[in-house]
Each structure stands twice: as C-alpha cells, then as structure tokens.
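During the second year of the project, the team shifted from modelling isolated chains to modelling whole assemblies. The rationale, set out in the original proposal, was that interfaces cannot be judged from single-chain predictions alone. As a representative example for this report, we include one of the complexes processed in the last quarter. Its constituent sequences, exactly as entered into the pipeline, are reproduced here:
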Amino acid sequence: MNWWRRFWHSSKMDEQLDKELRFHLEQQAQDLIARGAAPDEARRQVQMAFGGHSQIAEDCREARGTRWLEDLIHDFRYALRMLRNKPAFTFACVITLALGIGASAAIFSAVDPILFEPLPYPHASRIMMIWDGSHDGSRIPGTFGAFRAMVEGSRAFESLAVMKTWQPTITGEAQPERLEGQNVSADYFRVLGVSPALGRDFQDSDDQFKGPNVAILSDGLWRGRFNGDPRIVGHEVKMDGDLYTVIGVMPAGFENVLAPETQLWSPLQYDRSLPPLSKEWGHHLRTIGRLQPHVTQAQASLDLNRILHNLATIYSRSNSDYRPPDQFIVSSLQDDVTRSVRPALMVALGAVMLVLIIACVNVTNLLLTRSSQRRAEFAMRTALGAARVRLIRQLLTESLLLAAVGGVVGMLVAKMGVTGLVALSPAGLPRAHAIGLNGNVFIFGFILTTLTGLLVGLVPAWQASHDESGAGLHQSSRSGVDRRHLARRALVVTEISLALVLLVGAGLLMRSLHRLFAVDSGFNANHLLTMQVQTSGHQFDDDDYTRRFYAQTLEKVKNVPGVVAAAYTSQLPLSGEIDEYGVHFDPGPGGQTEGGYSTFRYGVTPGYLETMQVPLLRGRLLNEGDVANAPHVVLISESLARLRFRQENPIGHRLHVGRVDLPWYTIVGVVGDVKQASLAVMESYAVYVPAAQWYFADSAMSLVVRAKGDAAPLAPAVREAVWLIDKDQPIVKVATMESLIAATAAQRRFVLVLFEAFGLVALILAATGIYGVLSGSVTARIREIGVRAALGASRSNILGLVLRQGMTLTVWGIAVGIAGALLASRMLGTLLFGISHLDPYTYIGVTLLLISVSAIACWMPAWRASRVDPSITLRSE
Amino acid sequence: MALKSDLPQGTLDLLILKVVALGPIHGYAIAQRLQQVSQDVVQVPQGSLYPALHRLENRSLLAADWKATETGREAKFYRLTKKGRAQLETETASWQRLTESVALILKLSEGGV
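Output from the structure prediction step:
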C-alpha cells in the first residue's frame, strides 16, 4: 500500500490494527488456559504482560509514516477551534495582519512592474535611451542632425529611432477630436521589437521628406473611433486638413512606455539635407536604440562618442554656428523611464515594510498575551506526554492559520489599496496600466504571509516550550512571568521605535512640502487661469494668419466679464513645458561674443508680465509698440542680468536668442526671476521677446487670464471667447495656476500621503501595543498592587508606578527610534526640500506626539491599577 | 523476559523475515515460533514485534492478508514479498559474514598471534 493510501485509509487501518492486537491477546490467553490456568487469571496475566495496548498501537501507527500529516490535520482543526473560540482576539490579529500584508502587496504591485519587471518588449534590456549631455552632465533632448550621424556611423546599435509628440485634430463623420500622437522615424517599432497586429510597419520609404501621409493606429483608437473595423488598413482619415492612409494597427497589449497616452503614429519625414541651423536641429527629439546582441551599454557609449568626435571635427571646420553636444548619454530605457519615480517608490516600499514589521510585532504581542493565558493548557498537555516539538508545532500552526486568514483579507485590502494608489499616483507614473493584482503580487503575498505566520509564532512558541514543565500548573512562577514580560517589553520598544521612524519620515516630508509651497514662484499665482490654445489646419502654415488668430482671440478674451487681464505666452511656468535656447550677448568689454547660456525663451504678447504680476526691476516692459517691424526688444530675468552684467546696467545691450544670423534684440528691461520647471528647481535664466518679433509663429500658445474673483469658473466663458474666432481650434490643459503648482509637488505629496497613512497605522499599533503590555502587567501584579495599597500607597503613588513603567518603555522606544530615524531618513534624499533630514523640529515634534499618545495609552491601565481594592485582592488569594 | 535490547540492531527484522519465509503466518505465531526455535532465548515483546511487522509491511518486504486460522478465527497472515525474499538473502549473507568475523576475532589468543 502506498503512502497516500495508508494515510487515506488510516481509520480502517486503525481498526485492523486493533483487531490484530486483540487476536494476539486472545491467543495468548487461550494458550495459558490450555496449560491449565483459570480463564480469569489467564486474561489478567496476559493483559499485564501485553503492557500498554495503546502504546503499541501508537508505535505501529508511527511506523506507517503518515503520522505527521495526521498530526497536522489535528493541529489545524485544533487551531481553528481555538481561533473560533476567541473571536475578538482573532479579529484583532487578522485585521492587523491584513493591513500589513495588504499594504505591502499593494505597494509591491506598483513597484514591481516599474522597478523590477523588464519592460514589455522582447530583449527589453537591449533598448537604450540616448540623450545629448551638457558639460554638467544634465540630459538634453537630441537633435535630428545627431540622430542622422548616429544612424550612419554607429556600429553598436541594431536600430535607432527618434520621436516627438504630435497632436493632430481628426475630423470626419464623428466629432472633431484632438489626438495624442507621435511623429517617429521609420525604425521606431523595430527598436521596441513590436510589430503591428494588422497591416504593416513603417518603412524607410514612408519616412522621407514630403513622403506619403500614413499612420499607424493604437488598438484603443482603432476600437474606440473605428469600431475595430477589420478593413481599416488602406482607409483614409482626415487630420489637420490632410488625408492620411491607415497602414497598420498596433496589438492590444502594446505598451508605449515613452508616451503611454499615444493613440497614433506617423513618420517624422524630416528633410535629411537640412542645414544644421534649421528648426529640425533644435533639441526636441527623444532618441532610442536597440543594441546589437552582446554589445554592452558602455561599448555603445564609446561608439557614440566616437561619432560625436567626428561631428565636432566637421563642424569646427565649417563656419556653422552649430555645436555638437558635449557628450552622448546612453542609459537603459527601463532606468530612464523609471528614473523620476524610483526614489519615491523605494521609499514607499521601505515604509510599508516598516508597517508590516510593526503589524507582526503587534500580533506577536497579542499571541504572547494569549499564550500566557494558555499556560495551564500547555502545562497539562506536556504533563500528558506531548513533546515539546508538538507544542511548538501546534502554536506555529495557529499563527500560520492566523496569517493565512490575514493574507486572504490582506489581498482584499491590497485590491482597494491598488485602486487608491493608482488614483493617488503622480501624473506621468510610468507603466501605470501595468499596476494591478497579478500573479507576481499573489506570489509575493503568499511568501509574505508564510514568513509572517512563522515570524509571529516563533517567539510565543519558543517561550511556551521553554516553560519549565509543571510550573504552569501552579500559576505563579516568577521566572516564567518575568521572561514573558521582558519579551513583550522588548516588542513594545521595537514598535514605538519603528513608529517613530515612520512618523519622522512623514514629518520631514510634510515640512518639505510646506517649504516648497512657501517658495516664491516669482509671480502671483492667485486668480490665474491658464489653458493652451493650439492651431490646426493648413491656414496656419501662414505665420501672419497665426499671429492674427492669437491677437483676435486675445481681444475677445479680454472682453469676457470678470477678466482683469490676459496674455499669451509660448511657454507657461510650472506647466511641464521646457523651451530653452542658447543666448549670445553682444561683445562685452573684452570684445568677445559671450554665449551659450541655456535660457528659457518666452514669446509673449504685450501685457504678459503685467498679467502674471512679475515685477519690473529696471527699464520698461513690452508694449503695443513692439510690433514686427519695430526695433527688436527683449526683457531679461534678474538672474541672467546678474550673471552677465554683475552690477552694470544691462539696458541697451544686445543679444541673440538661438539663431545668430538674425537682427539683435536690444535689452529694454530687467524683470524678476520666475520658477519654470518646478518650485524646487533653481534655474531661472529667462528672456521675454514679443511674439510678433520672433522669427516664427508658435503653433500653440498658453493663455493666461487674471480673474477678478475665482479663476476656475471663468474657464467656459474664456473658451467660448476663443471659439468665437475659430471653433475648430483645440483648447487643452485648462487649469488654474494653483492646481499647476500643486501638481509640481505631486510626487512628494504622493509619498507624504503614504507616510501619513502608514505613520497613523504605526501610531495606533504602537499605542495598542503599549496598552496591552501595561494592562497585562497590571493584571499579573494585581496582588502586589493590592499589598502596596494595603500598606498605605496612595492612589497617585500607584498611578505613578504604572505610568512610570509605561513611560520607561516609551522613552526606550523613542531613544532607539531616533537613532534609527537619523540613519533611515537619509533615504528620503531628493524627496526632501529646504530642510535637512536631521531637521530638529521634526524630531522634537514627533517625540512629543509619541509621548502624548503613549501617555494616553498608559493612563487606562494605570487608572485601573489605582482603583484596585486591597481587601478584595487579598481575600481572593 | 529477554528484551529487545538484547538483540543487535536490525536483527529482529531479519528473524521475522526468516520465520515468515517458511510460509504465511500471523503475528502471535511468529512470536511463538521465535521463542520455540531459540529455546526461549529470543522472546520478542509485542511492543517491538508489531511495530516491526508494520514497518516491514510499509517497506513492502512483507505483505498481509486476513485469513481464517485452523480454529476458525480471522487473523492477519504475513507472507514474504519478492522484495522481502531478496532482502532476507542479503541480510542473511551479511549476518553470516559478520558473525564469522566476530568469531575469528574472539578466537584470538591473548598475548600473541
């Protein structure tokens, strides 16, 4: 009979065993009778000789080899019964564990696809992102020229591609709609290693100057707008006034990690023969490449910088003003995509692990309380012959069962957590679509649950099994009690210290955010409405038409009731737009052209600085007289003026913005610095040129509107005013400036919310932990307290006694916690702003908070102790 | 009563296999047979006999059937399996080798070769 059948038929086998042993017994008795013994006497002798019938049966069962499983099932049933009999205890443990496991699983589900899983492309580790690098190592978008040079000269890459955003308006039978698209070079999808599910990929012949208008659709657009029409390939759609032929549809699972919202792609079609000063040579392209097999990132970097060296030689000989970048930076696409969120996610993962540990400590504490109530039971079982191993196993089975239930409930918590997390996540979180409860998360949850179950059961099991046998039967063994209390105190100290670490993290983040919002943006953000007005259609190929459109719409907007002032700007502060040009000043005292300052270029209509309320420091602002054929004028920011002119007066000096072959701009004023990229970034060199004097008309401008009252309600009226001129022009990114400012802090806020939630959970758990230990200790010492009271200790003496005991634990916990926080808070690194991770106010504040919370937690047991009636306690003994 | 500990480790299994090899037999008879053949030197307590039988059965060295005895009572009769017979042969051989070696050593005269 095999093992499984032996186990399965164990009850039948027990029966047969009994029968077999009985047969033996009777045969023996018969033999004795046959030899002349009296039947009764014979039976008695046999019984005695046979010894413990049950012991033999036990040994035989042991020989079957199925014993452990039978024990396990028995343990399991017993554990189930124990947990059912104590619903409150079970509930407390399960909820605590569910919170810990669930929160961990939720955070893991966000962290896993972003940081640990490879990107969803074949051989994803070979896909690289290539940036132009400036001398200080910062990353700048690439140029078309550099891309061409790479394609022609690189040996390290199998394929290379560049892309830029493209937002066409689609018209046709359905509503006109603004689409999110990308202009890509022909090899884009080959670099990613994904082919269209329908139709064909782009070819070199598509990506030629004046090539055919073709497009590849995303699965979402195909299903949403074209009802998943299987014959879509070959059809024409109208976008921005042109007909595009659909040549393919990407597969449903395709993730475009570089721009997740992308709905369609069309070829870039840049003119390869363009001179290096044309618009296409601007730093506006993102470059990706797929490495040849077995080529490393470092080799690729060497390869590209060899090409760069050639480029530099060529351009130093020609009298062109183009300068190749200082270096090319090659980084893996995965790192690049996750770079910005990595610190936040790692910190979140660390924080949730602390929460899980605190949850484990708390449950361990509950189990210890429980096992001290069960000492009599354990002692009884030991006395009846249960081996130490069996007791440990029983307790571990119980804790594993608790953890398992906690894990299942935890997965529900995780499900809610993931939903909340995605809702809370900062905009632009990469791979947000891949976040969810998948196989990996369940495996993670399972491992976590098992470890948790073993971990929380270990200390109670060890303690229960090391109780001197018999001591438990008469309840008051001092040494056992002391050891148990020592362990519980140590656990409470751990809990308090971990809670302190989390709270310090939350405090530091909170203060950072306050500091951040206290930063002067350089303009008045209140009552400011912003939106981007785009142009679409061939009529806008004419720059004059475009400028006229913006001038007319601005007039309409200014007439909207409630609008105090309005203006257009080519880039909006804190909107995520970055439009930088190299600025070259006229020869200074040394006689040399000073140049190459990377500077934000704002093409603005007169009245922009007044609308934003950027202060004028010197000279004059732009006005209606600064038209296209008037002398070119420019305003510079305070920091740029200081950089170039120190104490000198910059008014009257001249500069070039970008192209150096055009008329000089004369500086007529100096204005205050404005935060462009984010409140946390210090860069503020800026030039303001009249949009009318810029050498091309921007095809999208941001409208800023200062409202008399609340800005948000004005939005519909302002939009209608623009549409009075042309109702087909898209208006996007409608937002108040206040919400833009809030958004620049989104990542910090995300981490802060997590820390606040985790810190709160930690605080509650620590408080219940200290409460539990103290009330346990008061119960255990009730007789001693009674004696003290009888001997004349006052109520306040006793109150003080218990409070002191609790506060000692708290102080220990705080001391350990501060040491831990000093080390751990370093990890917050770049998430902090304006304060050190050693910020004393935070540490003091958190310490006070913990002391007051634990004082409240200690008060209850202390009060109970002070009410102990000595006569009752003493009599009960 | 001679105790199990008097038998060297593993010997009981060998003895049981040997007795069972003579033909199907039940537990009580095995004990009786061992006692008789050894002229009361080997007395196997039930506490050792039955666990050993069950162990051997689980290792598929023995098989068992419930059959009627000559007195008409149902008893569990053990018999040797093929595997058990092979085991018996190797164990017997190694036992003999061991006892011969031990005998040789014990024959050494003290104080010289």
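The longest helix of chain A spans residues 478-518. The longest strand of chain A covers residues 594-604.
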